[in-house]
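Standup notes
- DV: blocked on the single-chain target, sequence here:
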Amino acid sequence: MSVTILAIESSCDETSASVCRDGVILSNRIANQTVHEKYGGVVPELASRAHMQNIVPVVHTALREAFPLASDPVEILQTIDAIAFTQSPGLIGSLLVGTQFAKSLALSLQVPLIAVHHMQAHVLANLIAEERPEFPFLCLTVSGGHTQIVLARSPLDLEVIGQTIDDAAGEAFDKSAKLLGLPYPGGPLIDKYAKEGNPHAFPFAEPQIPGLDFSFSGLKTSVRYFLQKQTPEFIQEKRNDLCASVQHTIIQILLKKVKKAVRQTGVNKVCIAGGVSANSGLRKSLQEMGEAQGWQTFIPAFEYCTDNAAMIAITAYYKYHAGQFAGLEASPSARAEW
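- DV (later): unblocked, structure below
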């Protein structure tokens, strides 16, 4: 039986809608919010207001893209078999917008509702491409709020075997960028300037955390103390080298733990996911380490790395077939465990 799912993602500052039919993504539309740039970070109240403005046109565009030959909006909606939404984690105001929209639409269409955990969806974004990993596989999930190593035994059997004990890798990128005087969002700018710099120019601290867990607070402190001793002229002159060194250190922290996870689990299929997986240095380093270690590596397309509804849709596809539906009493949660 064919299954068509409309998915909504609104966990932070991207409003996204996607249509998935039988595990194939037909559309994936994202509306970004530029209002936060002048504040140097996401302002929750402004994010939720922007979601309210964006959600209807984004859903409309996603449906039109998925069904270009249909002329009647009612006809399009009648093809939807379920509505999926991001339930957690995220900014509570942003999550509320997507949750209430999805619940209202599911109620009006009389179709099932599927609640999706944002981090689970990041992992399963690796299943969107035709060349997808076979189970079991390991996934390094890195974003602004999370850093995890996940053992995926099946689409709905995911175990976090390592995670950050303090800050996330994405936060380390953004905070380092701010210390370097780069505008928000700074992570992509570090990636840009690092391409022209020497990654070994400046040594920064690599925390020695036992097991598979991560820590990035010490790295941020190391960067801050080093820059406090420098002049603005020095920081500007050595910008590329500083960015390259920061990026190299973060990547080394991440990949050393991945290498350890492969040894411990015996699983040599390795994926990455999350917003930081769009970082070109990380993508290249993972591929190089994979070739050297004999791993199979899988990297999602850029559009599926950052927050997007396609990853919500593909997760909902598997939950639909497992009969994992949510009721209208479902509510969002800012910090929910899997």
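- Follow-up: Residues 134-299 form a domain with the Nucleotidyltransferase; domain 5 fold (CATH 3.30.420.40).
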